[in-house]
Fold:
Amino acid sequence: MSQPTPVMPAPEAPVKSLAKPEMKRTREGFGHGLLELGEKRPNVFVLVGDLSGSTNVSFFAEKFPDRFLQIGIAEQNMMCVAAGLAALGKIPYLATYGAFASCRSADQMRVTVAYTDLPVKIGGAHGGISVGPDGATHQAMEEIAIVRSIPNMKLIVPCDYWETKKATIAMADDPHPNYIRFGREPVPVVTDANTPFTLGKANVLREGKDIALIACGVMVYEALVAADALAERGIQARVVNMHTLKPIDVDAIERAARECGAIVTAEEHQVNGGLGGAVAEVVVRTHPVPMELVAVHDRFGRSGKQEELMAAFGIKSPDVIAAAERALRRKKG
Structure:
């Protein structure tokens, strides 16, 4: 099954097959993006906290060893080293697991990087529950809440390989600190090399006026699958890929609320402080409508397979469908 993939501002190209999607790792998109940057920009440096292979910064390290720094298991120190490089005019990208980048290094990210508004680029790998067997301590599901609350920080949660690569490259041109969240396991590819990407501008992947499904990360695919199922019931759902959570695309959210009359948000993150809250903050100020939030509800993760965990924690397409039905009942009421 194919769905139209609107590219801002107008839909043109088809979305890749939802039934048998191509699967690629977003972390490879990060690694390949860094490699391309390294070839074009001699002031790009890469730092890692003992996780070169896991974060795929090994691609950069092999080709540009003089601009690669292995800091070791010292994430707070790595954040400060990156800030020092940025102060000297370099564009430093650091990579570690999201649980360490956002939680363990929160103070250094806030004070040393964000307070001084230095262009440090932070790669939070293995984000969300889909990291699977690593278990609760490594399943970062609080990153969005932490990072988006810090002034000067920008936050990107790309949906697939291509979007991760484009976001990684785009961050180099932004003069502020950036945080990009990506996963470990292969995820469905729903965009391609030609799909436009602009920081702060959401993409509408499917048009619809009955309800809007606003998603980020791996949940964009789940929203597309849910929209397919809803269409079979005569419900036309708009699917919005909200890849940038800060600054969030206020216009896209307000338009979805006004034109669709109900919204479901879908994210691989805690319900507190995540995408749902960010969208709701816009909705209540611009055009209040019924909303439902598909997310992890105030729980720590656990060890298991990606698909099993997403189902167990209520963040698969059936959960998006159920949330849409609840929102539609409230809309009609």
